[in-house]
Amino acid sequence: MRDLVVGKKCDNKKGFTLIELTIVLIIMSFLFAVAGPRIAKSLSGLSLTTSTKKVAAALRYARSQAVNKSQVYSVIIDREHAQVVIRGMPKPVPQPPDEAAQEEFATEEEAAEDLKRVVNEVKLVPVAEGVSFQEISIGGQEFTGGKEELPQIIFFPDGTSQGGEIVLANNREQAFTVGVDFLTGVVTIAEKTT
């Protein structure tokens, strides 16, 4: 075991000098300055890609629910809140033709069952911050982006839809188009070139 004596110089050098540490920090800061904007750009592109895939998945979900539940489903594009709203359109509750049939319908259990058929789920799919709905065209009609406009694509029980295109873009001039075929209801994604 070695004992340190005061005033005696230690011969084994371990560690880095202040100059070596300063040079390494300068090199690292230069690399971060060059690489930082590139990383930010790729993250912005990633949030656009993710949001585009979420919107396409929401449209596919609405189509599958329309087919599976045999009812109309609506996908509302809400520009103001940067989200997509999926909701089923309620089926009409059958009304009994006369008073005698109405008494049969009057039990609470049957009324609760009828209410379950009418009440539908609502799903919200937000898009990432910095991503916006740039262009919306549904059934040949262009939506310009007024706050009172709530464009919607409707999916029918046979799988068809109104058809349309939704263009999502970020602030770095990147854009993707989500297309819905009116005849088949199939949803596609394509990168938009400017």
Task: Provide a brief overview of the structure.
The chain is of the alpha+beta class and 194 residues long.
Verbal overview:
- With 194 residues, the chain is α+β, with helices and mostly antiparallel strands.
- The protein has helices at residues 18-69, 99-105, 108-118; strands at 73-78, 83-88, 122-126, 131-138, 141-143, 152-155, 164-170, 175-180, 187-191.
- It has a five-stranded antiparallel beta sheet, with helices on one face. Strands 3-2-1-6 form a four-stranded antiparallel beta sheet, with helices on one face.
- The longest helix is centred in the first third of the chain and has 52 residues, at 18-69.
**Helix fraction by DSSP (H/I, runs of at least 4):** 25-40%
CATH architecture classification: 3-Layer(bab) Sandwich
Q: Which shape, going by the Cα principal axes?
A: elongated
Side by side, the strands of the main sheet go 5-4-7-8-9
Uncertain runs with pLDDT below 50, 5 residues or more? Answer: none
Integer count of domains: 1
Biggest sheet architecture = 5 strands, antiparallel
- The total of beta strands comes to 9
Order of helices and strands: HEEHHEEEEEEE
Number of helices: 3
Q: If you compute it from the alpha carbons, what radius of gyration comes out, rounded to the nearest whole angstrom? A: 30 Å
Query: Structural class from helices and strands?
Result: alpha+beta
Distance between the termini: 73 Å
Average predicted confidence as pLDDT: 81
Q: According to CATH, what is the class?
A: Alpha Beta
